[in-house]
Amino acid sequence: MTEGPLSGLRILELGHFVAAPFATRLLGDLGAEIIKIEPPAGDPVRQWGARHNGHAPWWSVHARNKRCIALDLKRPEARDIVLGLVRHCDALVENFRPGQLEKLGLGAAALKVARPDLVIARVSGYGQDGPYRDRAAFGVIGEAIGGLRHLTDHPPGTTDLPPVRVGVSLGDSVAGIYAALGVVAALWRRDRRQGPPGPGAEVDVALTESVFSLLEGALPEYGTLGTVRQPAGGGIATAAPTNAYRARDGIWVLIAANSEPLFRRLATLMQQPGLLEDPRFAGNQARVAHVAELDARIGAWAAGFDGATLEGMLAEADIPSTRAFTVADCADDPQFRARAMVREVEDPLHGTVLHPGMVPRIDGAVPPPRSTGPVIGADTDAVLGELLGLPPERLAALAADGVLRRGG
User: GO molecular function terms here (predicted)?
Assistant: First the structure.
């Protein structure tokens, strides 16, 4: 496959930080043409994380497969440029606070005048309506209100430290996935008809709701039983044994032996047949009820081996297990490498840089990125010249007036 399944679609991104840009990255990976509009100072993510050659390596991935132009959206001339671009786009993805685009003259009504069948995906903290609509929010707030931060902790009473963050912008990324799914669904509805295209759509994605949707059976359990799911640390509250156990050299190894056949294999591997005869561990419910004693037994056994040895033993016994990977482990992993989930990419700003592969893989295709995250305004001239026919002298005048920024 030389072109992605979304090849032929053009999507405009009015995004910043993580959620909307992540959504368009996914769509771009699948072949869509992405035109990203950022302010003349650049998307804030350009400044996040470590620096290499004066640039954030994250940007190489975050803005890959995107044509980046820089506009000051507070200027009327920039608004007119955006509306001109909308006429050539199938969808628009944004993650401003509700009402902000309307203040800029780029609300849904104005966008639909420019292109009536436009699909507009709007990502915000709480959604486009409701009593919390106007509150400020980032991904961490979505994770907290969505119930996840309460669960990413050790069991109650075991520590006074605050509930830990997952370690990445999970709330933003999940919202971005839902936004990308919503765009594809709305475009399918619009374009599947015979004859003229159907109407456009507004896709409303809230960070809080995106996280909340991940909580499995927590809500129906509360609604029927009145139980509030509590954090379980490294384990699973409903199945045992499943936890991380520290090997002799300090490596944490996760062991998931929570079915009867797997538990028998583990007991055999541990050379502790008494575990199978102990009524405290007879069946999953009993093991969950006595999980502290069981984890202590497994932990004491695991501590007698180095991590690599322990991993090998567990793999040989066909027990689901692995060390807790660092990013270095991921980068060197033969499975990730074999499936091009970790690949070397040439980036003009960094030289050779590692990129994560595309998810999902379709028809086995593993295409490399068409481009990496560019400098600010790298594509301003090309995009506005191709789509709007703006000549170089007009672009130069707009740049001199501060309406846009050209690359270089």
Answer: transferase activity
How many angstroms separate the Cα of 16 from the Cα of each of 37, 66, 228, 299?
A: 9, 13, 35, 45
Residue 14 sits in a domain whose CATH number is 3.40.50.10540
The four Cα atoms 358, 362, 366, 367 give a dihedral, to 10 degrees, of -80
192 with 249, same domain? Answer: no
Which are the contacts of 219, defined by CB distance < 8 A and separation ≥ 6?
A: none
In 72-118, the DSSP E strands lie at 91-94
Q: Which listed residue (172, 295, 347, 379) is catalytic?
A: 172
Q: Is 172 a catalytic residue?
A: yes
Instruction: Flag whether pLDDT at 1 surpasses 70.
Output: no
pLDDT in tens, 353-390: 999 999 999 999 999 999 999 999 999 999 999 999 99
Check which CATH number belongs to the domain holding 290 and give it: 3.30.1540.10
* 309 and 280 together in one domain: yes
Cut 0.85: pTM above it:
yes
Query: Residue 139: which of 177, 101, 102, 108 has the closest Cα?
Result: 177
Q: CB pairs under 8 A, 24+ apart, for 232-239?
A: 232/151, 232/155, 233/153, 233/154, 233/155, 233/158, 235/291, 235/295, 237/288, 238/288, 239/284, 239/288
Structure tokens at 119: 């699909």
Q: Does any domain span residue 3?
A: no
Domains identified in the chain, total number: 2
Environment class of 82 (CB within 10 Å of its CB; exposed 0-12, middle 13-18, buried 19+): buried
Amino acid sitting at position 392:
P
pLDDT tens string 197-236: 678 999 999 999 999 999 999 999 999 999 999 999 999 9
